[in-house]
Amino acid sequence: MATMRQSVFIERAADEVWNLLRDPASVTTWFPQMTDVNIDGTERRITLASGLTLIETIVSNRDDLRRFQYRLTGPLPIETHLGTIDVIADGDNRCVVVYSTDVIPHALAFVLDGAVSDALANLKNLIEES
Amino acid sequence: MGRKILFITTDQQRYDSLGCNGGTIARTPVVDGLAANGVVFRRAHPQNVVCMPSRSTMITGQNLSTHGVWMNGVPLPADAPTVAGVLHDSGYRTAIIGKAHFEPFLDPFLRFNENRMGINEDVEGPHRGFDHLEFAAHGAVGLNHYARWLTREHPNHVFCYYPAIDIGSLEVNPAGGGDTDAPQTGHNQIPRDLYHTDWVADRTISWLDGLAADDDWFCWMSFPDPHHPWDPPASEVGRVNWRDLDLPAGFTEDIDERAAILDTKPRHWRKWWDGELVSNYEAPARWVPATLTADQVREVNARTHVENELIDEAIGRVLGAIAARGWDDDTDIIFTTDHGELQGDFGFLFKGPYHVDALMRLPLVWRPAPSSGVNAAAVEAPVGLIDLAPTFCEIAGVAVPEWMEGKPLPSSPEAAKDQGRERVMTEWDSRHATGVEVHLRTIHRDGLTCTTYKPGTVHEGNEGELYDHAEDPLQFVNLWDDPSRRALRDDLVDDLRANTREWTQPKRAPQAPV
Fold first, then answer.
1. pLDDT of residue B122
2. Model confidence at B120, in pLDDT bands (50, 70, 90)?
3. Residue A20 sits at the chain B interface (C-beta within 8 Å)
4. Are the beta carbons of A112 and A129 closer than 8 angstroms?
5. What ipTM, to 2 d.p.?
6. Cβ-based contacts of A77 with chain B (< 8 Å)
7. Sheet containing A95-104, strands listed edge to edge, beginning at the edge strand earlier in sequence
8. A79, A82, A83, A87 alpha-carbon torsion, rounded to 10°
9. Is residue B493 part of a domain?
10. Which of A44, B142, B153, B155 has its CA 20 to 30 A from that of B507?
11. How far apart, in whole angstroms, are the C-alpha atoms of residue B281 and residue B514?
């Protein structure tokens, strides 16, 4: 299992950041190259700018922990995957977003982690400039 | 009007594959002809032995620690300075046609410009100083112009190619599809004129045809072959019958002797051979090199020779087009590759953290424009691919920018001596997604190759390799621990440390395995 982690500090309250991330449909606003999203129960389908549609299962969405977890199930050749987004308060007006990726096959680890890195940078800009 | 520049690269080609370098199988009369009328370099090394770092050095003229592309999967920043940009700004028309690979291939999120250009007809240059960009890779699947063209124009041939990447694991495919079950071999029924080698030549000729007679131009024609998969068009495979080939000298048929040779080297060699270590993505993770058979080595070599012949013939067509425009007298032609291929040496295929001639000693031929009056020569002094970009500047009559760290190639042994060329450096750093790290630093000087290791997953940091090419051209005998060579070894290590530009900044994260 390849395990990767990215994080970013955001100069906003944890609840404000979590309020965006807890909405699974908001992903197209902060994750680059994601152009469309459809949610049906725990299934989330995300269309990428490349035309590829990612199929995901939402695993947990916990307000008490400010944690969102999902599994990527296709169409990329995924043996196992878990994406975990945690929003952790660092005082009243600052928080850190930690985005972890555990995946097999290994070859996808850098790909997903690289995209996550872009997404967190974008998320920080989006929220801090709003 | 200045001198025009045709820069020809292949991918993963050995020094000994060309007739002008002693090769006896593949017929390469075109490149041999360039060599006969130009400058042949007998000791040209890349600064890294995989594609993206090596190509980034070629286009920037910089060490890895400067351009920052330290392993495959780390993109060259879009705003990195390039020799194409320098020439473009000096009035040259500029193009790259074929394999670029300054940015990762595996890109489902479409984050990188090269892939956006490849998949979308509306996305074009300029990019990295090139006015015109048309990309190809190692088959017909991928985000590049060749794949798009073949899918649109000849959809029945898209799946003729061997699938280089295993779709289940996204690793290099370990399956065999040829006659001997050697990995990455396949019977490819694609017609020769649709094969990517000919497509690269066709597109180059098309671009040249669009230029004005008095344009100055720089064209990087970049063939994806003879990099695996080894699946040249089936119509051409009969050129070299693998059953007739002698085994390469670097492949020891006795498996115990092979193991004994590996046991003298730092232990990642043997661990990979035994299938106990996967340190990098450039070879199939699920292939155990110890299973490599003599016939598999013969088949891979035969298919490689065929691919090299096709490249030579494609170059001949492009040179014919240049001559037809009346440009030959004013055109410099430089031929090289990004790195070598183990191709059976020591019982391995592919490439990785193994700093031996199979991967480091490259073909490099420079046919200066006849109008320049440069005489044919052979240069024994070590040079690097880092020297290409400054060479292009010098050919164009443009000052070499300070950010380039190489120096123009010498056109004669005397010029090499005047430049004080004594050594060439190569480095390797890799980090697999599983956490495995390997770090090598290498110097070649005075006919010796010396490699040191930094601490990593399988190395303590005190290991090393030392080869004397005069007495051991196959690098079978590691002299690192030979007491009689201790002073020589220490001198080389001191020289290596004094002349290696070490990293002063954090390494950028890989964005893909390749």
1. 78
2. confident
3. no
4. no
5. 0.93
6. 167-170
7. A2-10, A95-104, A80-89, A67-74, A53-62, A43-48, A34-40
8. -170
9. no
10. B142
11. 7
Residue B352 lies in a domain: yes
| Residue matched to tokens 């070859």 | A107
**CATH number of the domain residue B201 falls in:** 3.40.720.10
Dihedrals φ, ψ of B334, to 5°?
A: -120, 130
**Structural tokens at position B282:** 């450039």
Task: Please provide residue B128's backbone torsions phi and psi, each rounded to the nearest 5 degrees.
Answer: 55, 30
The span from the CA of B508 to the CA of A115, in Å, is 14
Top residue of B109, B148, B432 to mutate, by most chain A CBs within 10 Å, is B109
**Sheet order of strands, B217-226 included:** B132-135, B93-98, B217-226, B4-11, B331-337, B365-367, B39-41, B377-379
CB contact under 8 A, A110 and B512: yes
Q: Which residues of chain A, if any, have pLDDT below 50?
A: none
What DSSP character marks residue A11?
Answer: S
Confidence of residue B2 (pLDDT cuts 50, 70, 90): confident
Domains of chain A: 2-21+59-128 (3.30.530.20)
Q: Tell whether B25 is covered by a domain.
A: yes
- Residue-range definition of the domain harbouring residue B62: 4-423
Beta carbons of A4 and B433 less than 8 Å apart: yes
Q: Residues 6 or more apart from B379 whose CB is under 8 A from it?
A: B39, B40, B41, B42, B409, B410, B412, B413, B416
